[in-house]
Please model this.
Amino acid sequence: MSAYAHYDRKLVFIHWLSAFLIIFMLFFGMLVLKRLPSDESKLIPLAIHMIIGLTILMITLIRILVRNMTPKPIPATTGNRMLDIIGVAVHYLLYLGAIGMGISGIGIAVQARLFQSVFERVGPLPQNFYIYPPRIGHGYFALALLALIGLHIAAALYHQIILKDRLLSRMWFGHKG
Ligand code: HEM
Model:
């Protein structure tokens, strides 16, 4: 048996769904969306990006609610107090990063009138998104989120491979109780 209890199934599902969507969106945003010219070819990718982005924001808020309403496993420890504090801080910053991406994305959309140009096809796309302050924030939030995800994955692997405490099983399905 694992040394740890596990997270609620709803949280496990939301965790892996948001991990997949956020990582996809970070690469899609940096490698595809940002590089497209502001013409017809950008409308569908932008629509997909905005819909998934709003979905991530919504499921992150639902996740915080579910997290507060369901029993949590005992706090994980590495045996090093400093690392444990960093681990908890990274978890909170991940929530903040996901919410920051969503809110700054909405900020760009409102200022650049993207809900009209992308979904109603009314008005042109801006030639330069960086004239809108939330676009600058969106870029920095993306870099911060990428770094946090890197730290989060490194910590999970440290537990799994070095400490061998099977911590990952807390965030997986198939528990009998
Ligand atoms: C968690 C949710 C989101 C993630 C992970 C995400 C990710 C990204 C990334 C990585 C970029 C490129 C940033 C850069 O390299 O400077 C980007 C650009 C952008 N995102 Fe998001 N985004 C999210 C939510 C949203 C939302 C909700 C909207 C609008 C409703 C939005 C609209 C945009 C726009 C307009 C751009 C600029 C495209 C350009 O510069 O050509 N994003 N996003």
About this structure: The radius of gyration is 19 Å. The chain has five helices and no strands.
